[in-house]
Design a protein that fits this description.
By secondary structure, this protein is α/β, with parallel strands linked by helices. Helix content is 44%, strand content 10%. The chain has 28 helices and 16 strands. The strands form three sheets. It has a nine-stranded mixed sheet. It has a five-stranded mixed sheet with strand order 1-2-3-5-4. The longest helix has 35 residues. The chain is elongated and about 130 Å long.
């Protein structure tokens, strides 16, 4: 018996083969088009074409000028006559071609405004040469609009002008349009329409509006300065903010994506992305940062200064802390230098070479790639690859050294996978890194329009986007890196960012510099932005003993601020200041406006080596508690070792910046992972505030620029001196006049402790008994009053008067 099996067959449609053929034909066609377009990405072809444009512009200009003198002879010169024999002659200096082109442009088309065409050719040539003097697209658009408007305007004013140039100064184009406009609207209507169009053109292509606003602001300033001082509280601040709504950089349109086959596979593609989203939007506006004079001043707007008319008759105006220095102006961006060349430093040859080597290296290990994309950054280029299905990521990650060997480059870093993208990233250093200037970063829209409390602009990401963050959300920052890798420049960039955003009433710095040379540049702004211990000469703290006193004083300031927050029934400095500005807190009850305090410590390793726990203990307290009351720490060190960056420090500094270090161990100490040892130096850094570090190129700001900024600030009216921090004596606290009947519960434990160690200091009691500074200071005062410790002796430890346990017991028994 035979059992028959039914076989089901899927019958293909009749047009299946035809559709497959069409797809292959479309693919081959697109490949041909891309291969032809690749010619325009060849620098040699671009330069050759640019030279042709320049020569043709000169030839066209010479022909036009000659036509102005010989237009009657060369008029109506036809195309067919261009190829005629020598029996037909012309007087144009450009010959028959010049006569025909001149007659076409000047007579048949646009008239005298046709002189714009040689200018347009020169602009295109500069674009092909990658000289970013002008923006090619924006200038082309503006010149063509100007060409049409000028042609019509000349024809409206002069008409045919007795046939000058044949059709008049506006050419045939302008003549016919002007005749239609005059017939439809008359001379008055045509003139009004043209005047309106020229006005709109001027407003959109020139910074006229900004100049008008600036002039109006200057007039307002001068009027308010002439008013009497008594009117100042009513009128508010005399300065108005001049913040540009948009700042742009000079960019040139680049090829967004260019598919190209790799290793003969039509499914693989290579995409080059050079401009960030921010820069592309800026290029479309057709403006440059030099066209906007960025000069900001931190003052209230008139609407904020005006007392509400809807309120009660006796309602007070909100308190404005900036009125202490009402005419203070933020530094202008003109003090900074622009180091950007405006041109990419990565050639197409370098991109294709790196791409091919990456693909070949992976192919040698039987790793296939479906797609690869290159994103050009200022220092490194990110190659994003999509591996074929079935390829394990760990297999690519282990080839880091092999890829570095094939590219003959240092600093190769593999990100597998890139978070949120589903691709694998290979960071390859550019052969010629690009300098990122601080001026470019601070003039960016992202920084100018940020509403962060303490906005800091560090540099640019791999995708050429400005990187900014809010220090209040970090809330502290640890900066580490080997010597000469950009750490000091990074600190200067952080400080400069804050100086360009904040008024002296809103921000104070405590600067600690054991090396005595790094932060000394900022001593000029002592009366504006610095804070120091009272009765201290130098605002930049360099002595280790004064550093300890300053940090302990900041702990006392922190405790005092928390007391004020408790009385005001608020949780943080933002809520407290908002309540104080609204005049809901009485200054007579101890309330005051609280500025942010940023503590900048350079060479933290030197402090730890010389003072040890005396430094680490107050820093740990500040790092743990000072966030809510507006005290933030920025600590830098060139020795990222475990005995310097301890577990206590790392636990309280989640935000970290790592410049290049010499070993993977140091990288793990800073970032809890590798990466910092693979950087290339000179400002190349990793910023960690979450799970994955972000690679940045730090903005460069030179010493002369810092000098100019501090000089600009110091020349303005400031406070009588630096903000004074309450001096807290390391040993005496509030003094020896205490009531021994109200001794602390840990008084006897502290007494036995100092007698056992024969060392009487507040820091010893703090460490051993795990107490706060204030309580430990009160116990020391009680020990002095009881005769167990001697009086303070300056920077030396107190003398222990009780030499042994028996002497101590006699003293304790006498206290009862």
């Amino acid at each position: 018996m035979y059992i028959s099996r039914s076989v089901s067959c899927h019958i293909l449609p009749s047009n299946y083969k035809m559709s497959r053929k069409k797809k292959k034909q479309s693919k081959s066609t697109s490949n041909k088009v891309n291969s032809r377009l690749s010619l325009f990405r060849d620098d040699r072809f671009r330069y050759a074409l640019g030279i042709v444009f320049l020569l043709f512009a000169f030839y066209l200009f010479l022909s036009f000028i000659s036509y102005f003198f010989h237009w009657q002879t060369d008029q109506d010169f036809r195309w067919a006559e261009v190829f005629s024999g020598p029996e037909i002659t012309v007087e144009n200096q450009g010959g028959k071609w010049g006569a025909w082109l001149s007659d076409t442009f000047l007579n048949r088309w646009f008239g005298i405004p046709s002189l714009i065409f040689p200018v347009l050719l020169i602009v295109w040539a500069l674009g092909l040469f990658r000289l970013r003097i002008l923006k090619t697209l924006a200038v082309t658009r503006n010149l063509l609009i100007l060409l049409i408007l000028t042609s019509v305007t000349l024809s409206v004013i002069f008409g045919s002008a007795s046939g000058y140039l044949g059709s008049g100064p506006g050419g045939a184009h302008g003549y016919h349009i002007s005749r239609w406009m005059i017939a439809a609207m008359g001379y008055a209507g045509a003139g009004a329409v043209l005047l309106f169009m020229f006005s709109v053109f001027t407003l959109f292509t020139t910074p006229v509006l900004h100049r008008i606003r600036e002039k109006r602001a200057q007039m307002t300033d001068s009027k308010q300065e002439e008013s009497s001082p008594a009117d100042a509280p009513e009128n508010g601040d005399a300065d108005t903010a001049q913040v540009p709504t948009e700042t742009t950089f000079e960019q040139e349109e680049e090829q967004e994506g260019t598919p190209a086959g790799m290793n003969g596979s039509p499914e693989e593609s290579f995409v080059v992305s050079e401009l960030s989203k921010e820069e592309r939007s800026m290029e479309e506006t057709g403006t440059s940062p030099d066209s906007v004079d960025v000069h900001m001043s931190v003052n209230k707007s008139k609407s904020e200064e005006r007392i509400s008319e809807e309120g009660a008759a006796g309602e007070l105006q909100d308190y404005d802390p900036t009125l202490d220095l009402p005419h203070y102006k933020l530094p202008p961006l003109s003090l900074l230098r622009d180091y950007d060349s405006g041109d990419t430093t990565v050639t197409n040859e370098e991109l294709l070479s790196n791409k091919n080597r990456i693909v070949e290296t992976l192919a040698s290990y039987k790793i296939k790639i479906d797609k690869i994309k290159a994103t050009i950054g200022p220092t490194v280029t990110l190659y994003e690859i999509v591996p074929a299905p079935g390829i394990r990521i760990s297999k690519i990650k282990n080839l880091e050294d092999d890829i570095a060997l094939s590219l003959a480059a240092l600093g190769i870093r593999i990100i597998a996978p890139i978070p949120g993208k589903g691709t694998i990233g290979i960071e390859v250093p550019n052969q010629t890194p690009k300098i990122v200037s601080m001026r470019t970063i601070l003039s960016s829209r992202k920084f100018q329009e940020s509403d962060f409390e303490l906005a800091i602009a560090l540099g640019k990401t791999i995708s050429n986007e400005t990187f900014t963050f809010d220090l209040t959300r970090m809330p502290h920052l640890l900066v580490a890196g080997a010597t000469g890798q950009g750490k000091s420049v990074g600190l200067n960039a952080i400080i400069a960012s804050l100086l360009y955003k904040k008024h002296p009433a809103q921000l104070k710095f405590v600067m600690i510099d054991p090396k005595k040379v790094e932060l000394s540049l900022f001593s000029k702004i002592e009366n504006h932005f610095l804070a120091k211990l009272e009765d201290t000469e130098d605002a930049i703290i360099t002595d280790t003993q004064k550093v300890i006193s300053t940090l302990n004083s900041l702990c006392v300031e922190m405790d005092d601020r928390y007391d004020m927050l408790q009385k005001a029934h608020v949780r943080n400095i933002k809520e407290y200041n908002k309540k104080f500005i609204a005049r809901k807190l009485n200054p007579e009850k101890g309330h005051r406006y609280l500025p942010f305090i940023v503590v900048v410590i350079d060479e933290f390793a030197d402090l730890i080596m010389t003072a040890g726990r005396n430094i680490e203990t107050p820093i740990s307290r500040l790092a743990q508690l000072a966030r809510a009351i507006g005290i933030h720490l920025v600590i830098a060190t060139q020795r990222p070792t475990t005995n310097i960056i301890t577990g206590v420090i790392k636990a309280n500094f989640p935000a970290r910046i790592a410049f290049r270090v010499m070993s993977g161990i140091d990288s793990r100490t800073i970032l809890d992972g590798p990466g910092a040892d693979q950087l290339i130096g000179r400002g190349d850094m990793l910023f960690l505030s979450g799970n994955e570090p972000v690679r940045l190129q730090c903005a460069f700001i030179d010493t002369p620029e810092i000098d100019d900024i501090t000089a600009f600030i110091s020349e303005q009216k400031g406070y009588a001196g630096a903000m004074e921090l309450s001096r807290v004596d390391e040993e005496t606290g509030d003094g020896p006049d205490v009531d021994l009947k109200k001794r602390d519960d840990l008084f006897e434990d502290a007494a036995r402790l100092v007698v056992h160690h024969q060392q009487g200091s507040t820091s010893l009691i703090q460490r051993k008994l795990a107490l706060g500074y204030n309580r430990a200071g009160r116990i020391v005062d009680q020990l002095e009053a009881a005769g167990i410790l001697g009086p303070p002796e300056g920077s030396k430890a107190r003398q222990v008067l009780a030499k042994d346990e028996m002497s101590l017991e006699r003293i304790l028994n006498g206290l009862g």
